[in-house]
Automatic annotation (TrEMBL):
It is found in: Nucleus. Residues 91-123 form the RPAP1 N-terminal domain. This is RNA polymerase II-associated protein 1 C-terminal domain-containing protein. InterPro entries: RPAP1/Rba50, RPAP1_C, RPAP1_N, TPR_RPAP1/MINIYO-like. Residues 1063-1166 form the RPAP1/MINIYO-like TPR repeats domain. Residues 308-374 form the RPAP1 C-terminal domain. Residues 1-10, 69-83 have a biased composition (Polar residues). Residues 22-31, 170-183 have a biased composition (Low complexity). Keywords: Nucleus, Transcription. Residues 54-66, 86-101, 135-153 have a biased composition (Basic and acidic residues). Pfam families: RPAP1_C (PF08620), RPAP1_N (PF08621), TPR_RPAP1 (PF25766). Residues 1-112, 135-223 are annotated as: Disordered.
Amino acid sequence: MTHSNGSTPLIGSVFERKPGLSTSSSFQSKSIDSKKTGFPSVKHRSQSAFSRARVIEKTNGQERPRQPPTVTSLSPRPSPSETSTDDWRRQVEEENLRKVESMTAEEREEERREILERFGSGIEGILKKARVVRESREVKEDNQIEVKPEPLRVHTPRPLKAPRKGVLISRPSSPLSASSTRPPSRDKHLRFADISPQDVHVYESAPPSPKRKPLALAAPTANDGPTISLGDFQDHFKLPSMQPATLSAETAQQTEFQRTAADFAAEEGTPEDIRRRFFPTAAANVPSLAWITGPDSTISQAGPSIPSLRFDLTGTPIPSALSSTLPTHLGLHHHAEGTHAGYTLDDLFLLSRSTVPAQRASMLDVLNRIAQKLADGHKDSSKGIPELAGQEKELRKRILAAGVEAMGERGSLGAQAIAAMWTCLVGWDEDLISIEGVELKEASDDDAISSLPLEYVLPQIATAIRAVALPMESLTQLLAIVHRLVQHSNEIAVKIVETPTLVASIVQTFLLTPIPPPDESSYPDPFAIQVLITLALASRSNASMLTGPADALLRFVVTLPNSSSYPLSLATTLLSSTLRLYTTLASYGFYAQIATTAYEHFDKLGRYVRSEECRSLQLRAAWLGLVEAWTICARDPHRTTPTHEILWSQIVGWGWNEDVLSLRQRLTPENGSVWAAIWRAEAAWLEGASVNGVKNGESEKSALINGEASRLLEEWTNVKDLVRLRGISKHANVVASAIRLWLSCLPSASQTGLESPPFRLPFKDISALCAVVATHSIWEAAFGRGAPPFSHLFCRPLSGLLSVYLDLSRVMPGTSDDLWMAQAFTIVLRLLPGDEDSAIRIIEGAVGNIHRSFMESRNWHVPPAIWEKNGMDPIMPFLTYSLRVKDVVVGPYWMSPKSISTATTQRLPPQSSINPDTRKELSLPLNKDWAFVPLDYLLRSGQTDIFKTLPSAWNYSETEVVRATLLLVRVEREVLKLHGLQTPILSREETVFGCMKVFMLEHEQQQESIQEEVFRDSIVGSFMEDTMAPFTIAASSSTPSSSDSRPTLEVVAKRFLGDSIPFYQYYTDFVGLYDSVSFSHPLFARLLLPPTSMRYAVDYRKYLWADYSHIVKTIKTPIEAVIADSVDEYLYPVETSAEVIGAYLRTLVKGGLEGFVRLVAVHHIACNIWPDLRNGVGDDGKAAKLLQAVVTQCGFDAVREVVLYRQTAGSAAVLPPACFEQAGEWKVSRREFLGHSGDLVKERIEKLL
């Protein structure tokens, strides 16, 4: 192409590029679009690339012309065709139509197949839609006003300017891009969705430009079609920008056709439109393009099963209606199901094991917050998370396990893990932190602590505390976790002490802080000393190992609170806790030598406690408690470990007694707890003086009696109405301390009575108080269903009060032997583990009072044979054996010289192990039927070692042991009834089961003669008759007492049989024994009946009446001798078991039934026949058949009794023969009922009615 003057033109002819061909502008834009840093500029996806390009052009003043320029070629070229686009399309269509008409059917099918292979099966529908759109557009254009186009003008091309940095130069418009040259039908239309206020969620802290909602890439399913692995996919697929700059003409045409067809097939902006526009060569089911499907498509693919309960980052449940509308910038969509805000529990537990520490810490924080809410619901049912009701136990364990798994990590992850553990272990039952003196293994019913892998947890705690790499708050939480584990059980406490460096790390980190402290964060933590105290209370072995760390705590004794570098309150608490730790060690006889080693410092401490400068009652009580403990250790220096660690001469030389007495001047009568500590310390001094002092401590006792103590005791204890004091348990310790001091003032030789008391006490009020405490229902409630598992701990001060009151009552003038025995039989049931020495003393005293003169003075006849065999001596070893021999020895409420050498723990066992209604390893508390315990040892003679420990002089027979046992039971009941103490009296079921034991002594025994059977002994039989007499129908009152409040035989038997052997099995053995050896023994027969009452299961009646029906006729028990409150117990509710009714009928048919068993059989048969007895309930047809069987099989007497039997439910039972002789309208209804039984039956019995 040449210029007119022959020179080469600067710009040649400009040709429009073919659609689909790429240009080099993409490279230019990439090279220019960068900042000084070399990184590409930020591109917001909220603005399309085309819009950004237009904005840049406007900014640079290079706005594109709306009309294409007219270019004049410098060389001749053909003029453009004048044919319009529509004419061109029409010509193409006509040409295609002619070509198709000239093709054969085979050629048409072949072309059709090629098109389908190339463009897919949906091309036919796409073409149809495109044609419809085109035709509708033509109709629209025909209706529009024709506008003449503006004449084309020639534009002189401008030279390209150098682009500015950071500005994106737009490339030439695509044929499918939106522009003014696009056909009118492709113009965009602005559309608005119909929304309501509920569709808009405003979040308080939402940023002005939220991020795009992240979409999760779902895994391919079978419905997704063919998929390609990521490795293969990268080889076959390239993004358009990565393709070569030139494409073949065929490929360009295909791409153009596909994109043009897609524009008509899919609405603009839909996922399919995006894929066809920008990824034309990608398959429809490519996994990497799942992000374009949008939330709705994800939901449809994921399925409808979406968990409804989701949580935000504060652990608060998100309503299901709100979870799909929350914005994405809240951080609640980072989980597998990304269209719903919030995390399910499965998401939280899964992400809590993430490999990203920050994400893992965040999830543990959410789990911790959820656990806090669940813990609040555990304490208060109105709180918590209602959607998780019933799942608290399982979730607690799962959250705890998640925390344990991450507790060894560093940084915030480890801190969050420890916080979650603290919530699940400590915060769950935060009220238990202050509970000391009992194992709390039953405090949580889900047993979360027992599920911990302690072999992993404890070393991790030791490492964390020793390293001090975590925040102090986390270390304090670890300390609280250790304390809760110690509270759980003695076994865990031993493991904690045995864990290497754990105790040493606690002492070093929390107690041995720098002096003076650099800041408040370096202060010692008194709670660490409490952890050591709890460890020492758990076991003797723990206390022994803690004597080493106890040396380090002397720093708090050496520096008194008034001169300490710590705040006064902190220094006082540290000192008080240290003294209490030393007192705990002294309860085992340990660490008493420190009183000698550090005497100078303890002397200064004593002066400070007695001074006006000391205002802490807590510190004074702790100091008095330590003085009392070391005084008891010095009473018998052979009991300490090692021996002679502290001597009585040292106690006297140090003058602790005078120091204690001088402290009284600083107290007011309202300081009850400190007064109690003073009285106990003085009592310990006087008790030691009685053993080690001159003339049994007479001078020491007289000095106290003549001093000021008498007036102060009267002033404090002279309360007008002690019975109505609130918080009996709180004040019981104070009253008991006063009684103990009073008893310690007694002369050693005057233990049988006094002319005048050492000092005055309100004896009448104290007696009334103890009477209420001893018979109060609190004892049953403490072990009842629903009681806190540590409730028996609060009964310990009450048992201590009752124990010392019994000692007081015995030396009081006017207390008779039977009164004291009644008190002893009552109080012995209230003693708890640790009171074994008191129980032995009470039992030996009460049983020792049963002698010939005691019985004769009250006209209670006892066969001489009893006294010939030394009265109660045969059973005394059995009564106290279980109290003396045991592996676990709990320290008493008040320590003694014996306990400091024998106690293995200072904590009460769990409630279940000492429940009176279960067989237990520990002996206390005693059951009401404790007097039958010698029979237990006889029945288990092959399983106990008691017979190996009996004294050599013990030589008694089995019969003599049974005689003495039954006499003790009889005397106990009589003295209790004599003084109106009904609560400790044996119940009917306890008495029945005790007598059953007498007969069961013959079980599995080879008897050579009848005389050897114990139950045939005349004295044994007489005692059993006397024992059972109060519980017969003849002895019962006219108004039967309710049996619902009494324990059943099954409950009573569990005390002896345990949980492994049911009472039903015991009863079957009992019935079998009766069948084999009884020979119709009358009392033996009577004991068969109680389990067959309607109060018990039908199995007992089946076994006796059906399986052993042949022995029923040997039971000749008269009605008045039956063991029951009322005969109604056997009559109502009416028997409904067909098998038992059949057994009643068979025994009645066989004949021979007499007395009570005949009444039972007739009653239940008649009540299953006559409508007036069954109140219209039941099947008349079955009743008629039963009546027919009675009439046809039974004798005349049986038929007459069944026909004429009449009883009214709810009123007093009518006994034979009156129950067969009543008149009334009921006979009319029975005559009418005979019509259902047939003419034969009606004819035979109609005359009876």
